[in-house]
Write a structure and sequence with these properties.
With about 500 residues, this protein is an alpha/beta fold. The protein is built from 14 helices and 21 strands. The strands form eight sheets. It has a five-stranded parallel beta sheet with strand order 2-5-1-6-7, sandwiched between helices. A four-stranded mixed beta sheet has the order 16-19-20-21, with helices on both faces. The chain has a two-stranded antiparallel sheet with strand order 3-4.
């Protein structure tokens, strides 16, 4: 276990993250014993945090040395594990209480398992990711288990519930690939402008929303059928219907519940959950007065039933989402708030394969496991005399291009590469076969084009967005980079 912890420490050196070994015990007395053993006999003096509550045992003897009034300090120590001395946490009660423990890389369960549920509880101790934004890293959790429990874990594997593999301790640890700045390659350092402004989203001003101005008489009331619930739940003993469900949200004959569901669905789409109380009466007024060709009496069962129809619900949501999106969209002047130098990047860990790229400030760059297109593109860039420097855009970079998806939700896009030539800078999207048809592609393309246009105006440098489909690359890879870029740029982007 000590070797395992040291391997994790070596792997994560320079990242600002500290791996933690988590030991689970069956009693507070055993937790104390394990903690003392690790501190006094295994070289972890003052590096073990023992957590359990103070208890009064039978016969009046005290069991456990952590009193209730000490729990806030210990909870804080567990939460701030990166910046304190602790490397190992020993605990009993953390299975039952909601402690926030980060960076758990290995778990040693020293307790009697009474049910399969504890398998999930064990794994739950290590589900707080160290690098939550690192899409290229598949973080792994190692559980060092007694062989007698092997069948319990094998059952989980057979059921397909958990992605578990069983191996010996010696082969369980597989180091990730580390991407770091190579100080001998600073000539390939790049600077990325970080931009703020453009279209941003604020909480919609509902005082500006007049439901009388929304689309009227969207449906002819008489033409809307009464839907049948898609799912009916019955009591097994009485056969009484206890619940009815549609595929979208709960089918209900109660108008107040319907309004609540609908209002929450709209606010979820626009990302403004705090405005429930203000929006609900507006949704109510629109439904009762303007949605149909006639005003409706919502006390009538057939009215609520018709409102539950899937396309009626979707239309109400679309009407309000469109209106609120317009009210919540604000355009601000673009400005460069910072310039990010690649050489300031801390080491990045990745589970993906890496390529020892030459014209980059990093020692290597990652590419997807299931495709070699990006690797081939990096080989191509290294061979191009007109390419001065480039990088794969890593998740660690603070470069995000905002765009709105088809539902009007604000999202952020990160292209694949930045390439520098004498002519300027390029944002490159390398799109593999089949991915061009994804619904979000055109929206991302337009956002990237706008980003480059504004950055060029603000910095005086030329920035261009170029999307290179895999089939285009295979046809044009014998051309120089600038000529390839001109050829694919002739295709309309977005």
């Amino acid at each position: 276990l000590q070797v395992l912890l040291e391997l994790f420490q070596e792997d994560l050196e320079g990242t600002g993250k500290k791996p933690v070994l988590f030991v689970m015990c069956d009693t507070v007395r055993n937790a104390d014993r394990v903690g003392a053993y690790l501190e006094n006999e295994r070289g972890f003096k003052d590096k073990v945090l023992v957590i359990h509550t103070y208890q009064r045992a039978a016969g009046g003897f005290d069991v456990g040395d952590v009193k209730r009034d000490e729990l806030p300090q210990i909870r804080k120590a567990a939460k701030e594990i990166d910046t304190n001395q602790y490397q190992i946490i020993v605990s009993v009660m953390m299975l039952k209480e909601g402690w926030d423990v980060k960076n758990v890389c290995a778990i040693v369960p020293l307790r009697a398992y009474q049910s399969q549920i504890l398998v999930e509880q064990t794994l739950g101790r290590g589900l707080r990711r160290m690098f939550p934004q690192a899409e290229e890293l598949e973080e792994k959790l190692i559980v060092v288990e007694h062989p007698s429990f092997k069948e319990l874990w094998q059952a989980e594997i057979r059921d397909g519930e958990l992605g578990i593999s069983v191996s010996s301790v010696g082969t369980a640890y597989q180091p990730s690939n580390k991407i770091a700045v190579d100080e001998s390659k600073l000539e390939y350092d790049l600077e990325l402008p970080l931009v703020r402004g453009g279209i941003t989203r604020v909480a919609p001003d509902l005082s500006q929303l007049n439901v009388a101005d929304l689309p009227r008489e969207v449906f002819t009331y008489a033409d809307v059928p009464i839907p049948s619930p898609r799912y009916i739940e019955k009591d097994l003993l009485t056969q009484e219907i206890t619940a009815e469900r549609d595929v979208d949200f709960g089918y209900t004959d109660r108008y107040d519940e319907y309004l609540s569901h609908m209002t929450k669905a709209v606010l979820y789409r626009v990302g403004s959950a705090s405005q429930f109380a203000a929006l609900l009466p507006l949704v109510k007024a629109y439904i009762e007065r303007y949605l149909f060709d006639v005003r409706v009496d919502v006390t009538q069962p057939d009215v609520v039933a018709k409102l539950n129809h899937l396309y009626v619900r979707n239309r109400i949501k679309d009407v309000f989402v469109d209106a609120l999106s317009k009210l919540s969209t604000v355009e601000a002047d673009y400005r460069v708030v910072k310039r990010y130098r690649l050489s300031d990047t801390k080491p990045v860990h990745t589970s993906r394969p890496v390529f020892a790229a030459r014209k980059t400030v990093f020692d290597c760059l990652p590419y997807p496991k299931n495709s070699t297109y990006e690797r081939s593109f990096m080989v191509y860039l290294d061979d191009q005399a007109e390419v001065l420097a480039y990088t794969k855009i890593l998740s660690r970079f603070p470069l995000r291009i905002p765009y709105y998806d088809k539902d009007g939700i604000l999202r952020h896009y990160r292209p694949d590469f930045v390439v520098k030539t004498e002519a300027g800078h390029y944002l490159i999207e390398t799109k593999g076969t089949g991915f061009e048809e994804m619904a979000s592609v055109a929206l991302k393309d337009r956002a990237a084009v706008h980003w480059c246009r504004h950055v060029s105006e603000l910095t005086g440098q030329t920035w261009s967005f170029v999307k290179i489909l895999q089939e285009e690359f295979e046809q044009l890879k014998y051309l120089g980079f600038e000529e390839m870029a001109r050829n694919v740029a002739s295709r309309e982007v977005g």
